[in-house]
Design a protein that fits this description.
The complex is a heterodimer of chains A (about 160) and B (about 575). Chain A has seven helices and five strands. With about 160 residues, chain A is α+β, with helices and mostly antiparallel strands. In chain A, strands 2-3-1-4-5 form a five-stranded mixed sheet, covered by helices on one side. In chain A, strand 2 and strand 3 form a beta hairpin. Chain B folds into four domains: about 130 residues, Glutaredoxin; about 200 residues, Rossmann fold (3-Layer(aba) Sandwich); about 90 residues, Ubiquitin-like (UB roll), CATH 3.10.20; about 100 residues, de novo design (two linked rop proteins), CATH 1.20.1440.230. In chain B, the strands form four sheets. Chain B has a five-stranded mixed sheet with strand order 2-1-3-4-5. In chain B, strands 13-12-16-14-15 form a five-stranded mixed sheet. A four-stranded parallel sheet of chain B has the order 8-7-6-9, with helices on both faces. The radius of gyration of chain B is 25 Å and the shape is globular. The chains are: A alpha+beta (about 160), B alpha/beta (about 575).
């Protein structure tokens, strides 16, 4: 994997050395790194280990455990669709299928042009307005496959 | 440090300015339900419209009134008015009608949902005609939808922090524990353990420090009531934590929330800041010798992080995998210090229990289930929402009266309750009372309060497959009965769903499931077979159709099948880049 730039390293150090919350742990440092850079590069694993006076193996053990961490740079936009039971009953699998066809994906991941990161979410917390998706962290509910596809198409239109 | 009396006086003055001041007060529901339904677009449009017309108004984001189906909800209290006028499912056209009403009190011509308050508004119906409003008995959610979670004064003006003030000035810590015990309060996180008894475990543990932990991991798909409280009224949780802290002689509180749930996180952190600024948190609270600090800790995505000892591991920054017990948390908790952990809902009842007394609380509810249940009603139901109802109402009252039944003329088929580790019930369950023990005896726990309604088009095998996929995805991997067992259960369930089952698959599932129940380390594995067992009890015919007739009776198993496989094992080769490793 390509090394991060000097500017990115500075942002990383700033983020993990000046965390907003008082209790600093391996997990809190990893979350701070990902919030800043959008992913956890190898350098972040090492810096978090140094900051918390532990080993890279320990840090990697934590980072690989929680499913929200990613280890490659994300796409410009994030799209998450819930597949939990309520959303499933309300048609989430059709939304997922249609969206993945539109994005040319067989699974979670980045579109070929790298513009969109697509992720399954186990629960976005708005089950009363299911089915739900999140586009760049803005939630939208009561979705139809058409409405979901339109929202994502708007993203690709805007980014070209 | 200001006295409680001076805080209350300032808060009352502020409340009077909002409710009886010179300009209108507009409240927009912006909890996750409102947010998802477009509340932020409504707020922006309304601000723009009022600016355009040169109208001055207080606009607050508030929490969830319970009737999520009507979100985005907006309401207006005009100067001098005794009632609020509510608009439901607000869209761009309604923004004009709301602005008209604000500008000149113009009758909203059928656009309004109802009025709420002390006197009718002409041409509008009473909001209490909706069972989603009138059938609720709100204790933990008493302020939700009414006060702005961003304003501590609004909480205090409505009786906030009176409970901890009473405890500190009129009660000994043991009196507080006795009051909570007498109220019959049981833990709302799923286990329904008596809260007063749990608190008493930590009283004699050595300290400082001693920790009161609040669990808002809430990874349950289908449940959002913990997040709902934090988004709607975070101060009630903080006050509950303080009451628990005083009772158990704890020194620190930690609110544990899943990373990414920005609404609840931001609201809680803002509330903590305001509580310190107001002198409600910190040293010598209200002049007493009780000092208490509260902070927020975040977890990454992991359902098992909601298990109490896994939660402590996550707070310590490790993988959220459960610990062996004993030692129990009251002796050896987070960082090895004595700790007590409760759910958001459990804490949120205690301010009212202390203010109004154990007898008042225990008069609500039924049998050994006192108080209320906070139900997340979702799925194939006309009026999904977040409803706080007295314990003892029937499932039928919740699903049909409050929820409006199954829409589109379809027939009710099943209820899935208690989260992914809970169970399903059939349409014949409508007479069952919402009561911890009665629900458990029926084979479907109340758990954290999620009720997912399925209509006749839902296949029990398909729903079970989703639940098992979730439990497999979320298995933490520490103990093998759960790690391997969930994998097998998913494999077999998928085979059945695909109508490709092998002879003996049902027996194999039961054998794997009972092994998991007997030998898993924590509830995730011990209860992981629950969804399958209860689906087999109530909907065996659905399974047999797939197995013997090789068909899905509703066709829902034929749809696209998408669910992630467990991604926890190590998918990435780590190569050190050469930086110094501490």
């Amino acid at each position: 994997m390509a090394a991060i730039s000097e500017a990115e390293r500075e942002r990383l150090l700033e983020a993990i050395n000046n965390q907003r919350r008082p209790t600093v742990t391996v997990l809190s440092s990893l979350l701070a790194a990902q919030d800043e850079l959008g992913y956890v590069p190898d350098e972040a694993i090492e810096e978090v280990a140094a900051l918390n006076d532990t080993t890279i193996n320990e840090v990697w053990g934590v980072a690989s455990f929680y499913t929200n961490f990613r280890f490659t740079p994300p796409g410009k936009h994030s799209v998450e669709v819930c597949w939990g039971p309520t959303c499933h009953l309300k048609g989430a699998s059709r939304i997922l299928r249609r969206l993945m066809d539109q994005l040319g994906l067989d699974d979670e991941g980045e579109t070929a042009d790298g513009s969109i990161s697509f992720k399954f979410n186990t629960c976005l917390g708005a089950c009363s307005v299911a089915p739900v998706m999140s586009v760049n962290h803005r939630l939208s509910g009561r979705l139809t496959p058409e409405a979901a596809c339109e929202r994502v198409a708007d993203l690709t239109d805007a980014s070209h | 440090m200001p006295s409680y009396e001076s805080l209350k006086q300032a808060a009352d003055e502020r409340w009077r300015l909002l409710t009886d001041g010179p300009i209108p007060w507009v409240r927009v529901g912006a909890a996750m339900c409102g947010h998802s339904a477009g509340a932020y677009d409504v707020i922006a449009a309304l601000r723009a419209e009022l600016d355009r017309r040169g109208i001055d108004a207080n606009i607050d984001e508030v929490g969830c009134l319970g009737i999520c189906y009507a979100e985005p909800l907006a309401d207006v209290l005009l100067p001098g008015a005794k009632s609020r006028l509510f608009f439901g499912n607000v869209d761009a056209a309604d923004v004009g009608a709301i602005a008209d009403y604000i500008a000149n009190g113009a009758e909203p011509r059928g656009r309004a949902l109802g009025w709420l308050g002390d006197e009718p508004i002409a041409g509008v119906e009473d909001l209490n005609r909706l069972p989603g409003i009138s059938a609720q008995r709100r204790i933990a959610l008493r302020n939700a939808g009414h006060v702005a979670p961003s304003d501590i004064h609004q909480y205090i003006a409505n009786g906030g922090y009176a409970g901890i003030h009473k405890a500190l000035t009129q009660m000994q810590p043991d009196d507080v524990i006795k009051e909570v015990s007498d109220s019959g309060l049981r833990g709302r996180g799923g286990a329904a353990f008596p809260t007063g008894v749990k608190w008493s475990f930590m009283v004699r543990s050595p300290g400082p420090p001693k920790y009161m932990l609040c669990n808002c991991e809430e990874g349950d798909p289908g449940a959002y009531n913990d997040k709902g409280i934090l988004e709607s009224d975070p101060h009630t949780l903080l006050e509950g934590l303080m009451i628990g802290g005083y009772a158990t002689r704890a020194t620190n509180g930690i609110v544990f929330i899943r990373h990414g749930h920005d609404g609840p996180i931001d609201r809680t952190e803002q509330a903590i800041r305001q509580a310190y600024e107001a002198g409600v948190l910190g040293e010598n609270i209200f002049g007493s010798d009780f000092s208490f600090d509260i902070e927020v800790a975040l977890t990454g995505e992991s359902y098992v992080a909601g298990e109490e000892t896994a939660l402590m591991e996550a707070i310590e920054g490790k993988r959220s995998q459960p610990r062996y017990r004993p030692p129990f948390p009251a002796a050896f908790g987070v960082w090895g210090y004595p700790s007590t952990i409760n759910n958001v809902k459990t804490y949120s009842y205690t301010p009212e229990i202390i203010s109004r007394g154990a007898e008042w609380f225990s008069s609500i509810g039924v049998n050994r289930s006192t108080g209320t249940a906070i139900i997340c009603l979702t799925g194939n139901v006309e009026y999904p929402g977040l409803y706080e109802v007295p314990m003892g109402v029937t499932l039928g009252e919740v699903v049909n009266d409050i929820g409006g039944g199954v829409p589109n003329g379809k027939r009710l088929k099943l209820l899935q309750t208690g989260g992914p580790l809970g169970g399903v019930l059939g349409a014949d369950s409508m007479a069952i009372h919402i009561d911890f023990d009665e629900m458990r005896d029926a084979g479907a726990i109340l758990g954290s309060g999620g009720i997912i309604v399925g209509d006749e088009d839902v296949c029990a095998v398909d729903l079970t497959r989703i639940l098992v996929a979730f439990c497999q995805f979320e298995s933490c991997g520490k103990c093998f009965p759960c790690r391997l067992g969930m994998e097998h259960l998913l494999e077999i369930t998928e085979r059945i769903a695909s109508c490709e089952s092998r002879p003996g698959d049902l027996d194999l599932m039961r054998s794997v499931g009972t092994t998991m129940e007997a030998s898993s380390l924590c509830g995730h594995g011990q209860l992981g077979f629950g969804p399958i067992r209860s689906a087999l009890t109530h909907f065996e015919s659905d399974f047999l159709a797939h197995i013997e007739e090789r068909r899905c009776p509703t066709g829902s198993c034929l749809g696209p099948r998408i669910a992630p496989k467990n991604t926890r094992p190590y998918a990435h080769d780590f190569v050190p880049t050469g930086a110094q490793n501490g």
